């Protein structure tokens, strides 16, 4: 008996239809996808045929496709594993670990966030369609890869920068980057169908003519030194496991705190002053979609497109669940149908199968009652409340509202907003009652400018007038 969690029949029909419409309207030879909720694959689907012919072999969730830049987050996780092991610091210069290139001034963090100013592509022939050379040819000499902008100045997407990170992984491990990814990431996550070259059942790469329903085969090759930017092949089934990883089921590959750090926006991809819709973290992209935050990555190589999106929060209406994710793979060079397809699948899931609502229960800590209620920072009133094991000052996301987590006896630490990372100390009187709260020198008292609250600068002895 198959006990795999599944969506309902009505939801599955809507997801199947979305995929079929994308295949038809986007003229995709084949497309395969998976949806994840709660760390489990709850739906997979496929449409079209691998050769684009009506009677050709169908796709499914175990057919390999080249995933292009979806390779980059795997390299980024390998780098963060090295950071967590104390082998490097994100502030280290690339030169500190890999000498002899023109990229030496770039920091590891800048390379991970595409903010190092490194040129977007290599100097040789179009690397995505021609076999790649070695690191020496890519990086050394006057013709080697270089920086276009001052490091840290702006977001500038760079395939060459991730080639450099792949080389960094190789140098510190003493073996090829893809071997490190295999043993340190893929094997622990049981992603046996993710490889550097196609194996077993795999899709051929096609270009679809812009004005006619005919196909042109695209070349497949080893990218050499540029391979860390887009070499890996995978299946919808394997990438569903990677989607669950990004949703928080890291299986010990990295600490969940490290994953959260990787999903923080570091640099906004500014587009002529428009409200930001995409930002870059440490190897993962983030999107702001109608007030909801998503993370993941896109991918493209000649003959292939890929996309992965995972919800970081429930978003407006809370019909979705944090960790809901979708991944899509297709074997065509270009199609507008792929631009929003992962997000569309997630929207359909939220609409037709809303996230379960956990019932409220009286699971709070009565010991926190002495900290709750109205507090005053000067004449400003702030409400302290308890929710899900956290202390809240104000409403998170509004003004300086922040959540705080326990950090020792009478100590808390800010989790978000203005006070993220800042210490909150409960100050008690000699009799043990709470006198005031000290939030990194900001004093919160029970009444405005309480005379017994040790307010910095003192309180006028004549009081209010």
Give the SSE layout.
Layout: H1 9-25, E1 30-37, E2 40-48, E3 65-66, H2 71-84, H3 94-97, H4 108-112, H5 135-139, H6 159-173, H7 177-186, E4 206-208, E5 215-217, E6 233-234, H8 236-246, H9 256-262, E7 267-268, E8 278-280, E9 285-289, E10 292-301, E11 304-311, E12 325-330, H10 341-352, E13 373-377, E14 380-387, E15 390-393, E16 402-406, E17 411-414, E18 423-428, E19 434-439, E20 442-444
Helix pairs in contact: 1-10, 2-6, 2-7
Task: Please describe what this structure looks like.
This protein has 465 residues and is α+β, with helices and mostly antiparallel strands. The protein has a domain at 367-444. Helices cover 22% and strands 22% of the residues. The chain has ten helices and 20 strands. It has helices at residues 9-25, 71-84, 94-97, 108-112, 135-139, 159-173, 177-186, 236-246, 256-262, 341-352; strands spanning 30-37, 40-48, 65-66, 206-208, 215-217, 233-234, 267-268, 278-280, 285-289, 292-301, 304-311, 325-330, 373-377, 380-387, 390-393, 402-406, 411-414, 423-428, 434-439, 442-444. Strands 2-1-12-11-10-9-8-7 form an eight-stranded antiparallel sheet, sandwiched between helices. Strands 13-14-15-16-17-18-19-20 form an eight-stranded antiparallel sheet, with no helix packed on it. Strand 17 and strand 18 form a beta hairpin. The radius of gyration is 26 Å and the shape is globular. This is CubicO group peptidase, beta-lactamase class C family. It comes from Paraoerskovia marina. Pfam families: Beta-lactamase, DUF7586. Residues 365-446 form the DUF7586 domain. Residues 16-340 form the Beta-lactamase-related domain.
């Amino acid at each position: 008996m198959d006990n795999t969690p599944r969506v309902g029949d009505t939801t599955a029909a809507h997801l199947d239809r979305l995929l079929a419409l994308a295949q038809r309207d986007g003229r995709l030879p084949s497309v395969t996808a998976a949806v994840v909720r709660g760390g489990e694959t709850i739906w997979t689907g496929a449409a079209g045929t691998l050769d684009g012919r009506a009677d050709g072999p169908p796709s499914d969730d175990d057919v390999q496709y080249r995933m292009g830049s979806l390779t980059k987050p795997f390299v980024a996780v390998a780098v963060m594993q090295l950071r967590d092991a104390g082998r490097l610091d994100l502030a280290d210069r690339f030169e500190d670990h890999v000498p002899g290139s023109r990229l030496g001034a770039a920091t590891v963090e800048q390379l991970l966030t595409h903010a190092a100013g490194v040129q977007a592509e290599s100097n040789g022939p179009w690397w995505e369609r021609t076999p790649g050379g070695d690191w020496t040819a890519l990086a050394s000499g006057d013709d080697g890869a270089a920086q276009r902008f001052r490091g840290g100045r702006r977001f500038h997407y760079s395939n060459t920068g991730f080639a450099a990170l792949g080389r960094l992984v190789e140098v510190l491990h003493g073996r090829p980057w893809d071997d490190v990814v295999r043993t340190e990431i893929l094997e622990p996550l049981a992603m046996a169908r993710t490889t550097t070259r196609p194996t077993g059942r795999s899709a051929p790469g096609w270009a679809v003519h812009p004005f006619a329903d005919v196909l042109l085969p695209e070349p497949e090759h080893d990218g050499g030194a540029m391979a860390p930017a887009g070499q890996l092949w995978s299946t919808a089934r394997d990438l569903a496991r990677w989607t669950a990883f990004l949703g928080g089921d890291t299986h010990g590959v990295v600490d969940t705190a490290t994953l959260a750090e990787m999903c923080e926006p570091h640099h906004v991809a500014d587009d002529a002053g428009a409200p930001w819709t995409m930002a870059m973290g440490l190897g993962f992209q983030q999107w702001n979609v109608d007030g909801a935050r998503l993370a993941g990555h896109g991918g493209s190589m000649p003959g292939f497109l890929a996309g992965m999106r995972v919800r970081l929060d429930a978003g407006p209406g809370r019909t979705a669940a944090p960790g809901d994710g979708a991944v899509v793979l297709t074997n065509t060079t270009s199609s507008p149908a792929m631009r929003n397809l992962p997000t569309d699948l997630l929207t359909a899931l939220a609409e037709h199968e809303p996230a379960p609502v956990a019932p409220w229960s009286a699971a709070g800590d009565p010991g926190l009652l002495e900290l709750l209620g109205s507090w005053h920072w000067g004449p400003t009133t702030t409400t302290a409340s308890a929710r899900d094991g956290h202390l809240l000052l104000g409403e998170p996301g509004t003004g300086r509202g922040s959540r705080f987590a326990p950090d020792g006896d009478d100590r808390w630490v800010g989790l978000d907003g203005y006070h993220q990372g800042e210490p909150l100390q409960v100050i008690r009187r000699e009799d043990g009652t709470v006198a005031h709260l000290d939030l990194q020198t900001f004093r919160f008292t029970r009444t405005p400018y309480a005379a017994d609250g040790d307010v910095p600068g003192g309180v006028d002895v004549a009081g209010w007038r």
